[in-house]
UniProtKB/TrEMBL annotation:
Protein name per Swiss-Prot or TrEMBL: Cd(2+)-exporting ATPase
Species classification: Bacteria, Bacillati, Bacillota, Clostridia, Eubacteriales
Signal sequence annotation: none
Cell compartment(s), UniProt: Cell membrane
Gene field: cadA
Sequence similarity: Belongs to the cation transport ATPase (P-type) (TC 3.A.3) family. Type IB subfamily.
Source superkingdom: Bacteria
Amino acid sequence: SVPLSFFGGIGGASRDGILVKGGNYLEVLARAEIVVFDKTGTLTKGVFNVTAIHPDDIPEARLLELAALAECYSDHPISRSLKEAYGKDIDASRVSGVEELSGRGVKAVVDGRPVCAGNDKLMEELGVKWHPCHRVGTTVHVAVDGIYAGHIVISDEVKEDAKAAVAALKALGVRKTVMLTGDAKAVGEAVAADLGLDEVHTQLLPADKVDRVESLLKQVSSKGALAFVGDGINDAPVLSRADIGIAMGGLGSDAAIEAADVVLMDDKPSKLSDAISIARRTLSIVR
Ligand code: ADP
Ligand code: MG
């Protein structure tokens, strides 16, 4: 049976907006040795602003419109920002055949023409030659009829408490902090350096994130544990693969909240170190 103090620990945590799905997870949290974060929506706000539009042969407004329409059914933070920058109501009857390609972008038929919007990887897959982007930010390339139409640059901001969150984990003795992202190398490395993370891996597809977590799991000592923290967009498989999966409750998808062992209700990464402290305190009472 589960000792009563576990419920005390879980109750205390829930008052802090930390939902722990069972007493055994407190025990795993207390041993966290490697903490792996997803970037978008976890360490960054996941709220992108369009900072530049570089059309090739079409008007700027048309490029943005094609991207926003192609993205109209997606809940990805990038899609939300493109729709917001577009600003108009979207007539969904103009859009059909939508395919969401996780970690890459979307394909759709817009106004009767095939449109693809996404990153370098997507363009590579489609055999579309893209122009390099000279701005720092996440690039959304757009191809129409299989021909390059230009790109839109968007940028995200790190969460206010992200740097403190990483420092607090170090202070608790967490040996290694890692960030995984599907975003470009320059973007991922800039964020990781800014936050003081030990390691960063960029340009990962969701399946690559699972592979990375598997190899990091091999680096965990026999007494330690690996925690993965994500917003749950595309990362439910990683959440369940980690020794303990932690999801952002506000931004996170239902699938992520379902797959997670711990949910941070207010989306603050700094709550992770609070959760570890609560877990250690609770266990010291139980023992
Ligand atoms: P992260 O790993 O940072 O959480 P994702 O795995 O969700 O990010 O996405 C990785 C990358 O794939 C994004 O940086 C973007 O380049 C591209 N991408 C994913 N979804 C979309 C989309 N709906 N539209 C455009 N690009 C996308
Ligand atoms: Mg993500």
